[in-house]
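Tokens in:
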């Protein structure tokens, strides 16, 4: 009888421990901007392994992003500083959780099979742009920074008629289907993409990086776990994971 009692008590203790562990494990969803997605996926995997929480990464933009935020089904969101600040001002992101975590520099790729131009110096990059039959870059942060660099080189008007501003998806998608020959965007979303060949980073001060911030959505039901993830995203452990994706952590 005593043995059975001890066995029963042990079972209860194990069961309670299991329930307690399950209760402490959170299911987090993080909505990401295109430029931060590779790094966020690495960070999510590292955080899940360390914390026991489950993290789903969803890249979303435009109307889909607005819908997901309105539905209140996500816990964290990443984006360029301006958009995240706007969400904080509108009460959709908890203001005191907004945190810079990654920077990604600009790089150049060509359509698969085309010769790779020399872009090792500012003069070489300028010549590569002038010699290109067609060029493309985005309308977002990387595109704005690319355009600013082209303006610094005094090439805005010369390149205007052969430049395409992308509207949806990464620049490498356009390269893969032959929309243009030379594409410029953040390096971390260009390296190793099928249908394109990465050439290298833009030279000197023309390599104007784009930063991304992260914040907790006001509608999150997993606020503490979400804050825990932000702490992980800015910890020393985050650096090597972000560098794997050709991006850099923001020093805090």
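Residues out:
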């Amino acid at each position: 009888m005593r043995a059975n009692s001890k066995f029963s008590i042990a079972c209860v203790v194990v069961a309670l421990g299991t329930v307690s562990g399950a209760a402490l494990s959170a299911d987090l969803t993080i909505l990401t901007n295109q430029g931060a997605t590779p790094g966020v996926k690495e960070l999510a995997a590292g955080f899940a392994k360390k914390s026991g929480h489950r993290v789903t990464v969803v890249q979303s933009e435009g109307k889909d992003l607005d819908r997901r935020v309105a539905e209140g089904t996500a816990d964290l969101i990443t984006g360029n500083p301006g958009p995240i600040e706007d969400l904080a001002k509108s009460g959709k992101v908890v203001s005191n959780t907004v945190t810079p975590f990654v920077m990604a520099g600009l790089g150049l790729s060509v359509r698969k099979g085309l010769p790779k131009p020399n872009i090792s110096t500012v003069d070489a990059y300028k010549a590569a742009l002038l010699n290109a039959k067609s060029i493309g870059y985005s309308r977002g942060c990387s595109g704005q920074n690319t355009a600013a660099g082209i303006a610094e080189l005094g090439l805005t008007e010369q390149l205007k008629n052969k430049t395409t501003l992308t509207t949806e998806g990464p620049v490498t998608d356009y390269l893969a289907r032959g929309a243009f020959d030379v594409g410029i965007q953040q390096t971390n979303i260009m390296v190793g993409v099928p249908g394109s060949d990465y050439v290298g980073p833009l030279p000197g001060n023309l390599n104007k990086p784009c930063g991304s911030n992260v914040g907790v959505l006001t509608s999150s039901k997993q606020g503490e776990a979400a804050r825990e993830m932000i702490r992980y995203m800015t910890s020393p452990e985050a650096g090597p994971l972000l560098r794997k994706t050709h991006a850099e952590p923001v020093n805090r």
